[in-house]
Amino acid sequence: MFDHAYGSYMKYAYPADELMPLSCRGRVRDQEPTRGDIDDSLGKFSLTLIDTLDTLVVLNKLDEFEDAVRKTVKDVRLDNDVVVSVFETNIRVLGGLLGGHVMADLLRQRGRRMQWYRDELLHMATELGQRLLPAFNTTSGLPYPKVNLRYGVLNPLSRTGNESSTCTACAGTMILEFAALTFNWMEQLVVIIILYVCPVITESGVGAGIDSYYEYLMKAYILLGDNVFLERFNIHYSAIMKYISQPPLLLNVHMHNPTVSVRSWMDSLQAFFPGLQVLRGDLKPAIETHEMLYQVTKQHKFLPEAFTTEFRVHWGQHLLRPEFAESTYYLYKATGDPYYLRVGQSIVEKLNSYARVPCGFAAVEDVRTGTHEDRMDSFFLAEMFKYLYLLFTEKSQLPIDIDKYIFTTEAHLLPVSLSITQPPHVSPEEDLFTHSCPSTETLFPNNPSFAKTIRDGYKYLTGVGRAFQTFPVRCVHASDPPVRLHANVIAIHHKGVYRVKLVAELSTTPEEEVVPHVVQLISPPFLGRTVLVAGPAKFGMDLTKQEHGVKGSIVKASPFTACGPIDNPEQILGRIALALRGDCMFAVKARWLQAAGAIGIIFMDHREGSNSEETPLFQMVGDGDSNEDITLPLVFLFSREGSVLTAALEEHKNVDVLLLPKKKQLGQARDSLDLYSSQHSIQQSLSILDCLRPFPSAGSVSYVPICNLPAPPAIIIPHHKCGRVI
């Protein structure tokens, strides 16, 4: 599998940053349509090659490794005039160069390979670190989110923008790669986050935006041996286990109000957390959460990018993320339970069955439909294959002693021998878990059944085989620090105690109803007879509360994906914009088009041939943050319906439409009247409605004309289950 993925990158994409596995070509910054912030990982520095260096050694591909190092030294430049993410560049490129150097130096010392190597990768890592340092020139000491590799941040040529907020993980995932930085920077981080970050985001969890901050506190202690990192981690971990962890769920909480829910969904990046709990020595909750995640993968083939607390799809993407495989590896090493080998086998089989394509492996655009996305992120090679290979391989078969290394968040290998401080001695009275990683020999001697007894309580979690499961009651005292719980938590105040009960009625809970909407073409020659079924949005204007919907002329956005500044705002102003799905989130597109003056948006699916007859309607969701700033009405058309709209626009230039719920579309008469008039226009139908007056008679309602009408062949006016012909 690795040969297929890496070989495809080298054949079709190198020296580009990433492989486009459906197009069989490389993704080069500024040569492909922009994907917004996603592209900030790309710096024109052969990202995938660098990110894969130490994976080549782990998989014992030493000839390929030496060739890759030569290519990196010869071809890669780090002074490109390009704006990149400080966080992504640190973990992928700086970490990749360091991991590559560690492996190259090890092979050189063995005397059989890499004798030509003179620390070139280390020198490149030093150069890159210096190019990232301008991002740290801030009042708080936390880095700016973006930096120009050539011009830094403050230079007028940098083009880094005015964005100054950064996520906790983005600021807190530097210490392993920047171990030479002063310790004071990390020590101040938590206080700085409270002062500078909390006014922006008041929720906390263990997933996207904060995940690797926790990871790096623990691993900084392991790597550097300084107790302050462990103390800081333990403070956070205690709070996580008290409030966020509701086994097997990990629920985002509010920092100030424990009774108000933040989200009704979890993101897939949380899948790393069981692995971190293994490092902490806390096996039981790690097993519980991992089993929940495994059940979700069995239901949806992969972990969706986000899924609800009822384990339904929230965001359907699967980007070939490795976090679930990472936790599977850690749990197998800690328990020796062959069950986790079978979990790994299922990951392998699903990747080969549903993600493998002729030119590599492609991300899954929607786990519900199995459609692919033209991307294979570098972390797939850096992490996924490394963890899977280590899961199935005996230590004696590896070219390195894996126990002498610690994984960065991108799974790059740094030797524990870098530590300049020895961990303190632990007295027998102290908690073993507080100061050590778990030992299979001392904790779970030859007892893989330990994990099974915990897993068995969650084997029917997603509703397969059992209809109902009740989780234990949990009490949160009113004197506890304030937190925020999810909507699926029922909180009852009683004598200073919140009794919190998690109830999952899984197979009996109905899916959230999607109210069908329509795009109705009302200008000549359509006159309301062309009606396209559309999906609604969970944010923006609620069309079900608009009596007459929203009417306007449609115009194509430019760029069509609307993932950046709009090029035709003068045409968009006061009209309903038509935009293509993909490359960025719906909320991002909506903000750009709203800023350009649109009065509504119709999103069109970019998957050719999709249609509302074969694919269930869904509700578009926001980007996880507050979407209250988006006030436009938003609807979604599948490809086949969208092509009707674009064809009409190309032929007639000016096309007026109505956006409204299907039950309110024009031509559906009041009181469930079905005006059967195939030969008459919508205006005539409306005239007929205005000319009919209900006339009550014994037990029924008749309709009598009160003005002269154009004579249709017949008008069928049903009432309940009966029909009368006027």
Automatic annotation (TrEMBL):
<feature type="binding site">
    <location>
        <position position="409"/>
    </location>
    <ligand>
        <name>Ca(2+)</name>
    </ligand>
</feature>
<dbReference type="InterPro" id="IPR003137">
    <property type="entry name" value="PA_domain"/>
</dbReference>
<feature type="active site" description="Proton donor">
    <location>
        <position position="88"/>
    </location>
</feature>
<keyword id="KW-0325">Glycoprotein</keyword>
<keyword id="KW-0479">Metal-binding</keyword>
<dbReference type="GO" id="GO:0004571">
    <property type="term" value="F:mannosyl-oligosaccharide 1,2-alpha-mannosidase activity"/>
</dbReference>
<dbReference type="InterPro" id="IPR046450">
    <property type="entry name" value="PA_dom_sf"/>
</dbReference>
<dbReference type="InterPro" id="IPR012341">
    <property type="entry name" value="6hp_glycosidase-like_sf"/>
</dbReference>
<dbReference type="GO" id="GO:0006986">
    <property type="term" value="P:response to unfolded protein"/>
</dbReference>
<feature type="active site" description="Proton donor">
    <location>
        <position position="305"/>
    </location>
</feature>
<dbReference type="GO" id="GO:0005975">
    <property type="term" value="P:carbohydrate metabolic process"/>
</dbReference>
<keyword id="KW-0256">Endoplasmic reticulum</keyword>
<dbReference type="GO" id="GO:0016020">
    <property type="term" value="C:membrane"/>
</dbReference>
<keyword id="KW-0834">Unfolded protein response</keyword>
<feature type="active site">
    <location>
        <position position="323"/>
    </location>
</feature>
<keyword id="KW-0106">Calcium</keyword>
<dbReference type="GO" id="GO:1904380">
    <property type="term" value="P:endoplasmic reticulum mannose trimming"/>
</dbReference>
<protein>
    <recommendedName>
        <fullName>alpha-1,2-Mannosidase</fullName>
        <ecNumber>3.2.1.-</ecNumber>
    </recommendedName>
</protein>
<dbReference type="Pfam" id="PF01532">
    <property type="entry name" value="Glyco_hydro_47"/>
</dbReference>
<feature type="active site">
    <location>
        <position position="211"/>
    </location>
</feature>
<keyword id="KW-0326">Glycosidase</keyword>
<dbReference type="InterPro" id="IPR036026">
    <property type="entry name" value="Seven-hairpin_glycosidases"/>
</dbReference>
<feature type="domain" description="PA">
    <location>
        <begin position="550"/>
        <end position="643"/>
    </location>
</feature>
<dbReference type="GO" id="GO:0044322">
    <property type="term" value="C:endoplasmic reticulum quality control compartment"/>
</dbReference>
<dbReference type="InterPro" id="IPR001382">
    <property type="entry name" value="Glyco_hydro_47"/>
</dbReference>
<keyword id="KW-0378">Hydrolase</keyword>
<dbReference type="GO" id="GO:0005509">
    <property type="term" value="F:calcium ion binding"/>
</dbReference>
<dbReference type="InterPro" id="IPR044674">
    <property type="entry name" value="EDEM1/2/3"/>
</dbReference>
<comment type="similarity">
    <text>Belongs to the glycosyl hydrolase 47 family.</text>
</comment>
<dbReference type="Pfam" id="PF02225">
    <property type="entry name" value="PA"/>
</dbReference>
